[in-house]
Amino acid sequence: MHQNSSYAGLPAHTWMLKKGSEKKFRFGHPWVFSNELSQSPKLLPPGALVDLRDHQGVFLARGYGHPNSLISFRTLTTREKERIDVDFFTDRLRRASKLRQIAGVSAQSHRLCFAEGDALPGLVIDRYRLIGDAQVFVVQSSTAGMDQQLPLVFDALERLTKEEHTDAQSPSWDRTSIVLANDSKSRAMENIAVEPKRIIRSAADFVAENASLLVQPGLPDLEPLTFAADLIGGQKTGFFLDQRFNIQIVSRMAREIAKTKREIRVLDLCCYIGQWGAQLSHLARASGSRAEVTCVDASGKALELAGRNVETHGGVARLEKMDVLEAITRLEKRSFDIVICDPPAFIKKKKDLPTGGQAYFKMNREAIRKVASQGLYVSCSCSGLFTEEDFRSMLARVSTSFDGEIRWLARGGHSPDHPQRPEFPQGTYLKAWMGIVQ
């Protein structure tokens, strides 16, 4: 069994909060900032385990710290007797897996661990179900503290897989691969290496660059989809699982549109590997219609996969490799039955708010003009710093600048495999609004 740096999973360091600083923490917020500590964190080794106490010495939590980060402490447990060992991580992942079963998303690809949402800060694990009764865990660590615990995480994934294999529908450990995706630029904020993705464990026939992922359909009466994805060269962990709930909302509306047309025209902006377009093609085919999907992205490799995924599910793919705003201005107005505006995060830091907010406005202003009368418009933002209120205000400006009318029918958000904590607003980032243009 692997061991972490602290003796038997117990910290060698203790920090105390300033008087009054524990109020937010006692309400469940999992972070402590450096200015809330009664002493300097500078002598702590990055990522070391720490016990946190209030100004009177009463135990509050056990977690890990960083001497040079604004976020000095991240909570792992509030139980004083709980050790941070392989049993701890196995229990956390077991509970996370059970939540996904209850949410009804575990049979296909899903996010197994969503950092603070699953009480494992700095850790994201996507569990991709593959064709042939196989699976791959894509593991992403964003902090020095979680980097130190990764050997225990891998051990816990092995334990979990072997426990769950008692169910005939769950893959065995022999059919399980692991990819480590520590390539996020956010790691530099903790002074840890930004590394190329690499395979930690490979089943005999696993090809990370051409994986076939089983994905839940937009409507429950449809068959699961198979997506071609690159889990090494692709963005993030290779696929965006957070849009599942939004796709379900849109699919219900899109089915009504598909019932009245032999062909539906779809514009998928910032399409990546074509998740939206493939889902709508799948739905159209099942409805006796066909989707013609214009896929727009700056990545030629992503577009190639998008084309394959759309056509695998019965659609016709038209690929446009270019800057999205350039593509929008080239396309004719009011010509698409469904337009998906799902850009990358334009706002990654607070200083990006003015320019990023304007970029969202410009893109949505142009995109909504491409929707045909009685067509469906979908607008998304994955910028956590761009709040729901910011997003609403931006869409209000778009609506007033538009020469038609739009009636917003629904709002979306995170999929249920991305658990939310109201006491931790930093964990909420995805926003989505859906409306009909008249």
Characterization of the model:
The chain is α/β, with parallel strands linked by helices and 438 residues long. The protein folds into three domains: 71 residues, PUA domain (Archaeosine Trna-guanine Transglycosylase, Chain: A, domain 4), CATH 2.30.130; 130 residues, RNA methyltransferase domain (HRMD) like (Transcription Regulator spoIIAA); 198 residues, 3-Layer(aba) Sandwich (Rossmann fold), CATH 3.40.50.150. The protein contains nine helices and 19 strands. The strands form four sheets. The chain has a seven-stranded mixed beta sheet with strand order 15-14-13-16-17-19-18, with helices on both faces. The chain is globular, with a radius of gyration of 23 Å. It starts with 12 loop residues before the first strand and ends with a strand.
Distance between the termini: 62 Å
Biggest beta sheet summary: 7 strands, mixed
Which residue ranges are poorly predicted, with pLDDT under 50 across at least 5 consecutive positions? Answer: 1-6
Structural class: alpha/beta
Task: Give the SSE string.
Answer: EHEEEEHEEEHEEEEHEHEHEHEHEHEE
**How much of the sequence is in beta strands?**
25-35%
CATH superfamily of the largest domain, by name, is Vaccinia Virus protein VP39
Number of helices: 9
Number of strands: 19
- As laid out across the biggest beta sheet, the strand order is 15-14-13-16-17-19-18
Helix content class: 25-40%
Task: Categorize the overall geometry.
Answer: globular
**What would you say the CATH architecture of the largest domain is?**
3-Layer(aba) Sandwich
Rg, Cα atoms, Å: 23 Å
At the first level of CATH, what is the class of the largest domain?
Answer: Alpha Beta
CATH topology of the largest domain: Rossmann fold
Number of domains: 3
Average pLDDT level: 94
